[in-house]
Amino acid sequence: MLFHVRMNVELPHDLPEKDVADILQREKAYSQELQRTGKWRHIWRIAGQYANISIFDVADNDELHQLLCGLPLFKFMDIQVTPLLRHPSAVRADDS
Ligand SMILES: O=C(O)CC1=CCC(=O)O1
């Protein structure tokens, strides 16, 4: 199942710099590992915002929930999820 996920990040201003660096390093490693598995298909920065648009390809809602809850930045994020399905007018056989 494909999901469009928007993640808005808001880090507390009083979070110590070394904690921020640690979280961001772990976030990058976690995200890149999921991208390598194909579960996190796309990640795009939203211009001018500390936010991204991502596409996940996972088995079901439960798997998506588990993956999102595992994000090191999870507690600092506002996450909006939109389930996707193929449009009947799409001309490509896949979305790669
Ligand atoms: O920077 C972001 O948009 C938050 C984020 C999600 C995965 C990642 O590496 O950073």
TrEMBL record:
Homodecamer. Pathway: Aromatic compound metabolism; beta-ketoadipate pathway; 5-oxo-4,5-dihydro-2-furylacetate from catechol: step 3/3. It is an enzyme of class 5 (isomerase). It catalyses: (S)-muconolactone = (4,5-dihydro-5-oxofuran-2-yl)-acetate. This is Muconolactone Delta-isomerase. Its EC number is 5.3.3.4. Belongs to the muconolactone Delta-isomerase family. NCBIfam families: muco_delta. One of its GO terms (biological process) is beta-ketoadipate pathway. Residues 1-89 form the Muconolactone isomerase domain. Keywords: Aromatic hydrocarbons catabolism, Isomerase. It comes from the Bacteria. It comes from Xaviernesmea rhizosphaerae. GO terms for molecular function: muconolactone delta-isomerase activity.
